[in-house]
Amino acid sequence: LEDLQDAFDFCYKVHYQPGEDRSRDPQYVRQLQALQAKLQNLDQQRREVLAQMQQLLGRSETLRELLQQELGDWRERQQRSCLGAPADTDLRPLETWFTELGQRLFQLRQLLRALRDLQQKVTYERDPLAAETPLLEQRLQEQLAHLLKSAFVVEQQPSTPNAFKRPLVLRTGSKFSARARLLVRLQDRDYHMEATIHIDRDPPKVKGFRKFNILTSNSKTLQPGDRSQEGLVCDFQYLTLKEQKDSRSGKGSKGAGESPLVVTEELHLITFTLAYAYCGLELELKTSTLPFIIISNNNQFSSAWASILWFNMLSSDPKDQQFFSAPPPAPWPRLAEVLSWQFESVAERGLSQDHLLMLAEKLFG
């Protein structure tokens, strides 16, 4: 396109002489006809390139939708694995696919910028670049934003070092860790992206809902590591939580802060926020953990873990912090499956039908 454009521009400046009546000069007429043919060829080539751009954006949109389905399947596997189910939660295939698609979209973005530069140098009446390039840029920008926002995921849910394969139950004063990952591994070397974490950024409007502070640093700067296979990871380790005391409540009493939910049914969330920038594109990316429960002593652990099981079995909204204000009943086949996962996660063997029948008789008579 650039070569065609330069050839047309040269001939236009050399041969076209407006303001002079040279219609009877056969050589000048032939030059104008050749110039018109060059313009028609340039216009056709521009339209073909734009058509290819439209086609590529359509394909990338289809691919992005497929990746969204794969990512949804991965989230379900991760949720099941938190309950003890055997599941493959390796993110490397998804990371490869997301990165490849991100690279292609950024390449298209560069090509669109090059087309815009060409249009600024040479344009004409009914120029397709002037009409279609802004629309393509907007469509591409939306695709990139959707891809990047969905590519920021929680790789490791909040868990303590000795959780006995029981994540999502934390204890005040005890250390825990959580990790998020950006599946599109594209980063400017001269720009340091900062990730921050917040607990209960938008807390439910429930009277007496406990509030907590993260005592350790809540921000990290992501810098390109020496080993590229590590990817773009926000790894927060050795975090601790401390409850904010309600000044209105008296000593030894919840007082004005009394909550309708018991401690082991109070769900909390950690939100990761990443200031992303690459090739001039800047976005704020967010992702949240699964809801977790904060206990103050080990006697509450069993009840808290039962709540985690109940929520992840039955909730369709991973951010529903008021789930236990009206918890639904669990169908036995679903509960039986989860109970079998529990045994398999610690004994490497699930429950047989006879075992499950015995449990059902204990529960239902």
TrEMBL record:
Can you supply one Gene Ontology CC term for this chain's record? cytoplasm
Indicate the segments forming the STAT transcription factor all-alpha domain, all copies: 1-143
UniProt keyword annotations, A-Z: Coiled coil, Cytoplasm, DNA-binding, Nucleus, Phosphoprotein, SH2 domain, Transcription, Transcription regulation
| STAT transcription factor DNA-binding domain: residues covered | 157-295
What is the protein name stated in its UniProt record?
Answer: STAT2 protein
Organismal lineage: Eukaryota, Metazoa, Chordata, Craniata, Vertebrata
Signal peptide limits: none
Q: Report the source organism.
A: Piprites chloris
Which terms in the Gene Ontology molecular function aspect does this entry carry? Answer: DNA binding; DNA-binding transcription factor activity
Q: Which GO terms describe its biological process?
A: signal transduction
Entry superkingdom? Eukaryota
Please list the coiled coil stretches: 32-70
Is the Nucleus keyword given for this protein?
yes
Segments forming domain Signal transducer and activator of transcription linker = 320-365
The subcellular location is: Cytoplasm; Nucleus
Q: Predominant location of this chain?
A: cytoplasm
Question: What InterPro entries would the database entry show?
Answer: p53-like_TF_DNA-bd_sf, STAT, STAT_linker, STAT_TF_alpha, STAT_TF_CC, STAT_TF_DNA-bd, STAT_TF_DNA-bd_N
